[in-house]
């Protein structure tokens, strides 16, 4: 009797293990415009999620045929607006580029401040000289003492 029950159980297990679909195929079914619930039903919970500038960013990390994939879905107002590989900002807007621009601008500002400080120091010295009268050459004739 146990033997007759074991055969259908083994067959069911074999059939259900062959029905698994790869996460990569499931992810390829995710399209922009899908709602969060639809993505959750299809892919399950994300490996990571974050909220930035009013957008939700879900990251799915999975393996398919021994290859690691990291895919992202971005949502705005509950709808997917980006589906694909890990999103990278434009090179012109990347943190490294912005830091380099800011550093260059800071150097320009520092140079301008140093120039202004030197100009103000000279202007004060000129003002002080005029106020004391040391800026003018004074001619004092030499007199011979009277005997």
From TrEMBL:
The protein's matches in Pfam families, at most eight in alphabetical order, are given as: BamE
Give the Outer membrane protein assembly factor BamE domain ranges.
26-66
Q: Which UniProt keywords apply?
A: Membrane, Signal
Which InterPro entries does the annotation name?
Answer: BamE-like, BamE_dom
Any coiled-coil regions, as ranges: none
Q: Does the keyword field hold Signal?
A: yes
The lineage's top-level taxon is: Bacteria
**Know the name of this protein?**
Outer membrane protein assembly factor BamE
């Amino acid at each position: 009797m146990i033997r007759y029950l074991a055969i259908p159980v083994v067959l069911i297990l074999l059939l259900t293990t062959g029905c698994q679909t790869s996460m990569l195929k499931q992810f390829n079914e995710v399209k922009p415009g899908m709602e969060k619930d639809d993505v959750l039903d299809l892919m399950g919970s994300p490996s990571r999620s974050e909220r930035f500038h009013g957008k939700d960013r879900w990251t799915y990390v999975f393996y398919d045929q021994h290859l690691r994939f990291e895919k992202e879905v971005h949502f705005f107002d509950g709808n997917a607006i980006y589906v694909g590989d890990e999103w990278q900002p434009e090179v012109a807007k990347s943190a490294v580029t912005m830091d380099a621009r800011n550093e260059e601008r800071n150097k320009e500002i520092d140079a301008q401040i140093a120039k202004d400080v030197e100009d103000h120091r000279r202007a004060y010295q000129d003002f002080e000289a005029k106020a004391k009268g040391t800026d003018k050459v004074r001619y004092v004739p030499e007199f011979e003492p009277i005997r």
